[in-house]
Amino acid sequence: MLSFIIKRILSAIPVLFMVAILVFLVLRLAPGDPAVMIAGPNATPDQLQQLRESMGLTRPLLEQLIIWLTNMAHGDMGTSLISGKPATELIMDRFGPTLALSLSTVVLAIVVAIPLGVVAAWQRGKVLDRLVMGLSVLGFSVPVFIIGYVLILVFARILGWFPVQGYQPLSNGFVPFAQRLVLPSVALSFPYIALIARIVRTNVIEVMNEDYIRTARAKGLKESAVLMGHALGNAAVPIITIIGVSIAMLIGGVVVTESVFNIPGLGRLVLESVLARDYTVIQAVILLFSAIYVVINLVVDLLYGVFDPRIRY
Amino acid sequence: MTNQAETDLPVLSVRNVTIDTIPGGAKPIVRDISFDVRAGETVCVVGESGSGKSVTSMAMMGLLPKDALRVTGGQILLDGEDVLSVSEGRMRALRASKVSMVFQEPMTALNPVKTVGEQVDEVLRIHTKDSRAERRRKVLSMMERVHLPDVERIYRSYPHQLSGGQRQRIVIAMALILRPRLLLADEPTTALDVTTQKQILKLIKELQEEEGTAVVFVTHDFGVVSEIADRIVVMNRGDLVETGDCRQILSAPRQDYTRMLVSSVPSMQPRCAPLTDQPKVLEVVGLSKRYGKPGKSEVLAASDITFTVRKGEITGIIGESGSGKSTVARCVMRLTDPTEGAVVLQGQDIAPVRNLRAVRQKVQYIFQDPYRSLNPRRTIAQSLMEGLVNYGMPEREAREKAARTLELVNLPAAVMERYPHQFSGGQRQRIAIARAIVMEPDLLIADEAVSALDVSVQAQVLALFEDIRERTGISVLFITHDLRVAAQICNALVVMQKGCIVEQGATRDVLTNPSHPYTRALIDAAPAPDWDFQNFRPLPLAV
Fold first, then answer.
1. Where is the ABC transporter domain (chain B) (predicted)?
2. E-strand stretches of B110-238
3. Which of A214, A221, A234 is the closest to B112 by Cβ?
């Protein structure tokens, strides 16, 4: 198992390397120029050229790439072209809010979706099942920003239960921290609840036809115990897979949600950096996301082994 | 408990039970069934697929699929209590404590993600108030009673870490740990090897005698029936045909259906001698097959296999699961490449041949499961003609040949435009045989080709094999685990164990005078070896 983990981590290095090169090249190919952004509309061509030279943007592309990769290999993510702050520092500042939002969303999605899916499987074809599945279509098809604005309107503006926008770190106390996370997490979790509930339902229904379910019933177990004790555990592997995929997709969704709820997280950082053509910061954040994907996949694979004793590494 | 057992009241009394589909069909699928089972008695419910025997036993457990089947009439009395009218909660309380069940497929009957100890423990957890330690002690002692080795380790094992026989012992432990009054066993040994089957039957008998349990044993296998039954209930297409005590049904069945069913069971009496004067069609010399990398993970699936099949001969390869018999067949067919050795077909060694196109036509394969071996989206004509057309025969000619071949397997040429789902299992296997022999191969490989069939259909298909052999002079490599089937049609036998041939020779010699202890054990394990089912009497000369 340890050798499996080490192998997987080592195999992530070439992946991250490829991502790094791709990101670098794609950004350089994209239109826009960070020097123009900094110097503003009134700068003369000479000033611009000088600025570019000082930022190192006039060197050959390959040279820029090698410098960047070498720095990366030494753990130096570079400094922001715009603010001059180290990219690592910018990311660390913004990491907290995004982590809090993502975690609360994932936990919420799992906690809500699994019971919904199990209930739908149990009541297959009946009213409750149709209701859950109908809602899941809705949750899937309505964009996050619409759900977000509706939630703000109802729960923040009309009912006044939660603040409209913003973020407070946990260090300022749990209540303000949690209060500001509820609405964005709920908004962001909708499509994942829909997705996970559907997968849970499908897989539980499939498992319910297995022989060992009949065995469990023949023992005299209640239907609820059959579902929770025997069916769900056997449906776990595909459910974990989809949860892993959801977390990966979530990172994309965070960009929109953070904008709607004005949360200073990584999503906002990406947006700001893209608009300012702040190459180093974009590169650093995307590499970070890639590394997170790799870790999520590894964790998912390891969890397979936890839930299914037949899978061993 | 004891005074109940002593009274004359049967443990189980099935009275006029009728089971119908939801919504009701033209005819209920089980009609007006009645029989009793007393304490300590074993009643075998025998019937072919579709007879309603399994549905009836599921009804006794209250486990009929709610949205598909329901009992529309009658009573099922368990110690006088009608299980059809009790509440859901009461039924749950009865399950495992008063009536429990052992299922056919031990490979799938256990939850793969829980340890077997936990699964047996669960029965005690929901039906008793025992402490955790007390339950553990009881589970371990029950595991010992079903003769599992090293029970502490088994307790912590997951199902996939146990053999089929061990899993079935776990299922039995689970079923009997609360000492139910009635045990329903639905084909509990059908998926097991004969030697394991024998042990499991012995175990059920032993536990039944200790506890005075009433047993309903659902099976299609008359060999098993004759070993264990006190009384027999014969079912056919939802009707109860006949009941009687074991000896009476086997020796003097009253109903035609029962006579047909009993006489379809092949006897252990060898009938064919090898044809030593015929030319050799297949010679396998020193064949070995290794899987995995040499060294640690290497598995020797077949080792130094040498045998010969002559023209017009049916040579049986017999052995239990994992003996390597299918590996040998796959090597002969070149579905997998042998690691060593020669496969000489009509004088040509096909083991090293790279271009298999010519070889494929000469060797044809018939698989075990007729429900999965025909492409459901192709008509019978398409399936039969594909190979011929592939080898360059004009379509018109191929169609005529396919029609002639169908007649050879006793199907009218009119079935050509139908699809496989429109046929029964037996008919499908005939089609699969037609599909193979239409290519006019030198060698036919039949891999457990009759194992999935009902006994009456099996008898017909076996007769068909012999008929085709007579008419075409084809050679057959017949792979089976069933000694009765082998005795019935094989000229010569090859007995395999753990990848090696332990014995081979004329069928008569191997079966009547086995030289290897493993062959002896296989013969001893075959249920009722000394009963001549075809003639309703014991075999005149003991095998």
1. 12-262, 282-523
2. 182-186, 214-219, 231-236
3. A234
Q: What is the C-alpha separation between B138 and B144, in angstroms, rounded?
A: 10
Contact between B94 and A220 using a beta-carbon 8 Å cutoff = yes
Q: Is residue B521 part of a domain?
A: yes
pLDDT 10s digits, A33-73? 777 777 777 778 888 888 888 777 778 888 888 888 888 88
The token pair at B16 is: 């006029």
Residues in chain B: 543
Handedness of CA B233, B236, B242, B246 (dihedral sign): negative
Whether residue B542 is predicted with pLDDT greater than 50 in this model: the reply is: no
Q: Minimal CA–CA distance to B266: which of B444, B5, B461, B44?
A: B461
For A215, which residue in chain B has the nearest alpha carbon?
A: B109
Substitution target from B113, B174, B190 for chain A, most A beta carbons within 10 A: B113
Q: Name the domain boundary from B263, B287, B320.
A: B263
Beta bridge partners of B479: B317, B447
The answer to whether B113 and B106 are in contact (CB under 8 A) is no
How would you class B541 by CB atoms within 10 Å of its CB: exposed for 0-12, middle for 13-18, buried for 19 or more?
A: exposed
Q: How many domains does chain B have?
A: 2
| Residues of B whose CB is below 8 A from A220 | 92-97, 123, 126-127
Architecture of domain A87-307: Orthogonal Bundle (1.10)
Which tokens is A142 given?
């309505």
Per the rule left: phi > 0, alpha: psi between -120 and 50, beta: everything else, B285 is beta
B536 within 8 A of B252, measured Cβ to Cβ: yes
Predicted ipTM of the assembly: 0.80
Whether residue B121 is predicted with pLDDT greater than 50 in this model: the reply is: yes
Q: What is the least distance, in Å, from the CA of A6 to any CA of chain B?
A: 22
Please report whether residue B80 resides in a domain.
yes
User: What is the predicted pLDDT for the residue at B243?
Assistant: 94
**Centroid of chain to Cα B314:** 21
**Structure confidence by residue, pLDDT tens digits, B136-177:** 999 999 999 999 989 999 999 999 999 888 999 999 999 999
Range of the domain at B70: 2-106+181-263
Phi, psi of A204 (to 5 degrees): -65, -40
**B334 and B249 share a domain?**
no
